[in-house]
Amino acid sequence: MTFEVKILGSNSASFAFGRHHTSQLVNSNQNLFLIDCGEATQIQLLRYQIRYSRINHIFISHLHGDHYLGLIGLIFTNHLQGRTEDLHVYGPKGLDEIITIQLKHSDSRLNYNLHFHQIDEENQLLFENEDIEVRPIKMDHRIPCFGYVFKEKERKFRLNREILPNSLSKENLIDLKEGKDIVDTDGKTWTNASLASPPHLPRSYVYCADTRFHAEIRPQVQNANLLYHEATFLNDMQARAETTFHSTAQEAARFAAIHNVRQLLIGHFSSRYFDVQPFLTEAKPEFENTILAIEGQTFEVTPVQPIKVKENNVEIVNN
Amino acid sequence: MTFEVKILGSNSASFAFGRHHTSQLVNSNQNLFLIDCGEATQIQLLRYQIRYSRINHIFISHLHGDHYLGLIGLIFTNHLQGRTEDLHVYGPKGLDEIITIQLKHSDSRLNYNLHFHQIDEENQLLFENEDIEVRPIKMDHRIPCFGYVFKEKERKFRLNREILPNSLSKENLIDLKEGKDIVDTDGKTWTNASLASPPHLPRSYVYCADTRFHAEIRPQVQNANLLYHEATFLNDMQARAETTFHSTAQEAARFAAIHNVRQLLIGHFSSRYFDVQPFLTEAKPEFENTILAIEGQTFEVTPVQPIKVKENNVEIVNN
What we know:
The structure is a homodimer.
Chain A: E1 3-9, E2 23-28, E3 31-37, H1 41-47, E4 55-59, H2 65-68, H3 71-80, E5 87-91, H4 95-105, E6 114-118, E7 127-128, E8 132-138, E9 146-152, E10 158-159, H5 170-177, E11 182-183, E12 189-190, H6 192-195, E13 196-197, E14 204-208, E15 226-230, H7 238-243, H8 249-258, E16 264-267, H9 277-283, E17 290-292, E18 298-300, E19 308-310, E20 313-315
Parallel strand pairs in A: 3-4, 4-5, 5-6, 14-15, 15-16, 16-17
Antiparallel strand pairs in A: 1-2, 1-18, 2-3, 7-8, 8-9, 9-14, 10-13, 11-12, 19-20
């Protein structure tokens, strides 16, 4: 099942060196979710040939312009392009007022329903479908700011369809998907492992928006398959990172390491840096599996395979 | 003296075919004025290497997103880049509320003074310096909408410095600049035409934002050196132009013709048109001197030269 993140914008504050304001597109089983929507996100979506109408859920981290100023335009353009499907926007208090006042002054009555979901507290269930759940995670920034945790639901055992005998009943199939051994309609006993494979572990993508670094363990981040963490500065600006409630690449990597994540994606680069390679150089000693949020690139939320299976006793090694 | 208009965005409503939302930069004697500021105007300014800090006056026509959604970002970026000089924003009622609420929710205290000038009526003097005056002109759109008239001030006669005799007093020079004949300190009489040239006629640039076509004469537009008039549609959509309070290329050209302007610039093209050449084809039969608002291009507000001079009796032909 597809679970991936496309980077639409990777810069902080100003536009610079062809880098845009923050925005990411999460694709979970062909359902598209937008995280943050800096100015010109519309243009980035056009550039990467993503139809606006496919996005039904937009998650805004906080009300600094480089994270939300493209939202109103996207709302208007959806309207002008004849959207009829509901659009859900999630974000901190105040965003509804910003949207409402602009709809009012443009005398716009949208031809679709716009639902605003205010984020009040960490971990509240914002969205779920049969594949994933989305919950907010609190950041430490100058104004209220939330990250988002996209977590797959527990999945069932996968049937090895090529080798299933004809003697199985509907109930046998259900039991196999639950990981049980079965007795078929001929009275023969089959171990689960002989006909099914254990499910992938539920994957998670954790988006940590603008934040100061803290060493405390956040349970929602632990063992994430992919963690995005802002890395606005290099070590030369560590003091500034602290006073502006941002992080350095090294701090992002330290955060990844203490949470035992599988892979770290860093972005939100300051406009003072033309070359972003030094972000990798400073992050990797703390956390080797770090990658740069390069615009236009798509990063898979890599599944962790169960690698040892003993009969019905499944031993899963998180490598 | 420089008086020119650079097109930063030429499309209406949506981004399409590389065309951006409306924005124009007026350069009057190296003073820069922004007219409208659609989303991503910041990026367009970067593209054409125009420093944000050089713009001190921004004129917004109306509160449809494609004309102002880039303003808040530009205000924020000016702040982040350390601007200290005052910034003046002119626009219809409501724009101040939109700005204020976004400054509030981002907890921003700008490190420069932002002055909002609300436009209440046509022709009020919004701005003047020694070179030009700027006044609003009312449009006929679905919501309150103003165009802007940039008009040069009357200029003085120009001294032909190469041939000025040494016998002239300070008062003689002042009189020559006023177009008078003089008697110099040696008692010799000089005609004004022998030592000075008549001034260029004051030039005007008229920006007609989103509007329905009307045939009535607007005195502020008459004889404009350069008229920008929106041309959202071609003739095939004439009915739609009427109902959406927009104009066709042919209507823009008719408006130019009845106002005897020198040159017409058309833009605000609908996203339904990939090729904008037909806009010219449909405009030219009504008004030959029509040009397309192509992004990145700069159009001079062409002066009208006084072409016949008879002694002190100046006959100016507006060609």
